[in-house]
Design a protein that fits this description.
Keywords: Cell membrane, Membrane, Transmembrane, Transmembrane helix. It is found in: Cell membrane. InterPro entries: AA/rel_permease1, APC_superfamily. This is APC family permease. This protein is mainly α and 443 residues long. It has one domain: Amino acid/polyamine transporter I (Up-down Bundle), CATH 1.20.1740. The chain is built from 19 helices and no strands. Helix 4 packs parallel to helix 16 and helix 16 packs across helix 18. The longest helix has 46 residues.
Length: 443
């Protein structure tokens, strides 16, 4: 990836992680979260942040123990075993394969709100076709303007918050400071189940905090840098989500919107008028477009690596096209995205989160297996960092997982079932060792 090994510093890794998370997504999913939590979006993000910090701690510990690329697949494979490692990788494939679908669906929903004469289907097809063509040809242009795209997102977010605060100061009926964005309109006694359901969806905004582990072999002093970077990315991203959602929720209390999938569009119009809503739409579409390019490219390259190493069909996914890009994986990603025509943002994001939760749970278990069981770190520090913290992370992740809607659990369970059947085929009924994904697990 880089000509000079060990090139990246802590700040560069943190910026990469924040860019991958796409901060403007807090506005893109605001209406969905407000509907689910009855107006407690900030509270949902606080719960999600706490859960993610425990899991981020586990990712940092595993990055320190195994400073290689590969994320959950490599960590679980090294710490527990190759078969569970494969299942962790299979769960991550769900994220990488279906994440572009959700990104494009959100962008299409907002464009449809702005231009209702053009159906969501047309916008969605436009996202799929244009992004796939760019990725098939190559990413030099997209890489060159990635920093500009990130700057546009930040400026739009800052403007949105500033206009929301001005709106609150002008409208004397709404206080600037209130607990309502944290507990909702239903009261404290009914807040917990709604907050957990909202947090299970809010975790979608954190997807990508672990993506920096793919840069481990290009990072200076990775055993020290990676754990710090992962925690900083999670904390900074989470604080952005909490603060932004707080002021937006204050400017638009409750959870009732005409179109929850694109609620921030109406809110932008209400607080900033016609000019700002245009600026907001440009910022959100730019953010979703850039994120979609990166997500599809990353997913296709993982599919290519797994196909090349024999974990997936080699002829379909394990070969590069004429432009040197993973043509099969990119086309498959575009085809899978067509499922968005039958799904809404809530169902699609919940399905994505299921795969992430499975991988996160396994990484928490990997910390216990490696440090507490194998390495026998049993003192006070060991019990705290290598048993208590990952257990809390595991329990939080499992709670969030079972707070997902039944459709997401059913689809996610089916995905895991397919993975087990594929693993059975690869190992000839679990009798043989399985191929190793060399590009993601090399020591």
């Amino acid at each position: 990836m880089f000509q000079d090994k060990k090139l990246l510093s802590l700040s560069q890794v943190v910026m990469f992680g924040l860019a991958y998370m796409t901060p403007i997504i807090v506005l893109g999913t605001f209406g969905i979260l407000a509907m689910v939590t009855s107006g407690a979006v900030s509270g949902a993000y606080v719960v999600a942040l706490v859960a993610m910090l425990f899991t981020a701690h586990s990712y940092g510990r595993m990055a320190c123990a195994f400073p290689v690329a590969g994320s959950a697949y490599a960590y679980v494979r090294h710490a527990i075993g190759e078969r569970l490692g494969f299942m962790a990788g299979w769960a991550i494939i769900l994220d990488y394969l279906f994440l572009p679908m959700v990104i494009w669906l959100i962008g299409a929903a907002y464009l449809n709100s702005a231009f209702p004469v053009v159906s969501t289907t047309i916008w969605l097809m436009g996202f799929i076709i244009i992004t796939t063509i760019i990725n098939v040809i190559g990413l030099k242009l997209a890489s060159a303007i990635n920093g500009v795209m990130m700057l546009i997102q930040i400026l739009v977010i800052v403007a949105f918050v500033a206009l929301a605060i001005r709106y609150l100061l002008v409208d004397a009926s709404r206080p600037v400071f209130s607990l309502e964005p944290f507990i909702g309109t239903e009261g404290v006694t009914r807040a917990l189940p709604m907050l957990m359901a909202g947090a299970a969806i809010a975790c979608y905004s954190f997807l990508g905090f672990d993506a920096v582990t793919t840069l481990t072999e290009e990072t200076r002093d990775p055993r020290r840098t990676m754990p710090r970077a992962i925690l900083l990315i999670t904390l900074i991203g989470g604080l952005i989500f909490v603060v932004v959602s707080y002021f937006v929720q204050q400017a638009a209390p409750g959870g009732l919107f005409t179109n929850p999938d694109a609620a921030a569009y109406d809110i932008a119009h209400n607080i900033g008028g016609d000019l700002f809503v245009s600026v907001f739409l440009i910022g959100l579409v730019v953010g979703q477009f850039a994120s979609g390019i990166a997500a599809q490219a990353s997913g296709a390259r993982i599919l290519y690596a797994m196909g090349r190493d024999g974990l997936l069909p080699r002829r379909l996914l394990g070969q590069l096209g004429r432009f040197g890009t993973p043509f099969g994986g990119l086309i498959l990603s575009g085809i899978v995205a067509l499922l968005a025509l039958t799904m809404d943002v809530l169902s699609a994001a919940s399905f994505i989160n299921f795969g992430a939760f499975v991988a996160f749970a396994m990484v928490n278990l990997a910390v216990i297996s490696h440090y507490f069981v194998r390495e026998k770190h049993r003192g006070l520090r060991g019990v705290t960092f290598f048993l208590l913290f990952p257990l809390l992370g595991l329990l939080a992740i499992m709670w969030l997982m079972f707070s997902l809607d039944i459709r997401a659990l059913s689809l996610g369970g089916a995905w895991l079932g397919i993975g087990i059947l594929w693993l059975c085929w690869l190992t000839r009924g679990f009798r043989n060792s399985m191929p190793v994904l060399t590009s993601l697990s090399s020591a």
